[in-house]
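Limitations
The structure tokens in this dataset are predictions for the assembled complex, not deposited experimental models. Users should treat interface geometry with appropriate caution, especially where small molecules or nucleic acid strands are included. An illustrative entry is reproduced here so readers can see what is and is not provided.
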Amino acid sequence: MASPLSAERLQRAYRQMKTIREFEERLHVEIATGEIPGFTHLYAGQEAVAVGVCEHLDDADYIVSTHRGHGHCIAKGCDVQGMMLEIYGRADGLCKGKGGSMHIADVTKGMLGANAIVGGGPPLAVGAAIACRNRGRGNVSIAFGGDGSCNQGTVFEAMNMAVVLKVPAIFVIEDNGYSEHTGKDYAVGSKDIAGRARAFGMPAERCDGSDFFAVYEAAGRLIERARRGEGPATLEATITRFYGHFEGDPQLYRAKDEVKRQRETMDCLKNFRERVTAEGWLSAAALDAIDEQVLTVIEAAVAAAKSSPPPAESELETDVYISY
Amino acid sequence: MPQKSFRDALNEALHLEMERDGSIIVLGEDVSGGAGGTSGQREASGGIFGVTRGLLPKFGADRVIDTPISESAIIGAAGGAALAGLRPVAELMFADFVGVSMDQIFNQMAKFRYMFGGKTRCPAVVRLAMGAGMNMGAQHSQSIYALLTAVPGLKVVVPSNAYDAKGLLIQAIRDDDPVMFFEHKALYPRKGEVPDGAYTIPFGEANLLREGEHVTVVAIGRMVVFAEKVVDTLSKEGITCDLIDPRTTSPLDDETILESVENTGRLVVVDESNPRCSVAADICAIVAEKGFHSLKAAPRAVTAPHCPVPFARELERAYVPGPARIEAAIRAVMKG
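Predicted assembly:
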């Protein structure tokens, strides 16, 4: 079978997913040292969703993200070192150390912010989609959210409004099985998130979030449709998270071997590697080379973050307003 | 100079600015009205208060957006559109509905610039119709600007007359920060002199409406109308007042207030809000803290009582701070 992406694009997608994975795996280690302030929600396990969607986007397309936002930031092109510095609370972080893990943004990349309010992002994405529609250049706006966000009224308001205004907004629901510590089977009444979206009058697809190609192809169909002016859509991706709700979460709500099992069967990087090498689209050596390069990038980012100064106290009251 | 109503002054500001800048959009419930109705009349209301009248026929449905009743989505869409480079003017209809959309106001648009290290701008305006006096009951009559004045990142405007309404709204639209624009419903039909062209009134600059020697009266929104009457009446018997309209509660021109109190030594603040944690309480506290040495009497706040806005005419009349209570407060501080 022919690859749906060029070898160059395949390598890029793999590099992005691997960067997210190693970024998160390294954070998992570094957070345990106590050096990183606050609390952090890791995206490891869900990489194929962020990358499968964002590989269709450029800087003029918008995304809004969630509290579990590192993956979306990297996939949308945020600077990895700037992100690491931000998570460490450093002056030269992407947001000058004022945002932290849950508030990373880079508007120049079309990344309108990670968002610590579950369900806070989708209304914003509708606004950005109005901007896309009015400019008439075929850009789209993506709202990432989890299964937990699907129980927030803001998400329903945003979905309905997007349909009514027929704006190019795509709602990507990453069903990782848990709303914080509460299982989806308990908290999502209908279990059918795509069905909820369809009830608002938009098409919705389901895909296996651990399969990059499944996400990439489904997202591509919905995004192209929105670019043509045919309105919003929803993509529900079934996936898992390899860590807890936040770092330090003892995950007493999960079966003992659940993550171990999922790492064996639902690891999007492993699945990607197996598929592209079996099909002969990329060589194992090429992937190994990317792995090594990514580790170097992450190592450099952590080293820079560790040696970087915190914000000066004089920064406390700046950036509240543009003028006041 | 032409006489125009507060409502028409606001409407004119929207027309002028939308003509000038194609990135301005207006969105909210019934901003034109008539979408999906059976009469075929596409602009059926022009906003329930008529402030957005005539915008849809001139600027089209991409820029004048009738929304579902979804306040979180309206305000959120305004915030997102502003981040993405538009200049949205969202109408929340009644200020009381701020409760439904609060997250999008105080967690989202107010905080973007700070959280994102000063690298974003969110030039959104939210218009909120406020105020008691029309028997609309507890959920359609509040003056809750204090709630938003307390939030860093927001600017809060409370105009008291038609001239200011137009100049302040144009300033709000051109401003690069999120602005909460409160319009007292009882002021909509009130006329004043309003020039035809565009002009701006800067935020954080109070308007000194009367000059006097004995008392500093600070009044907000519709309360300025009552305070003006009282101040003019009392001047005939020799009690003269500085009458100050802050025009914006964030930023607040405390300098003008403090300078005035330095001269008069007495302060009365008139505010239609409930008393606790109100703008009146805030201004009294600022003066007590920074102008204590010049005070000849304890500052007085004239506010609504600590109760919801009632429905019955008689009760609502008793709720709204009126000229009699303002006069009593001025006379009380004169006694020291």
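Some entries come with short summary sentences. For this one: Chain A has one domain: 7-315.
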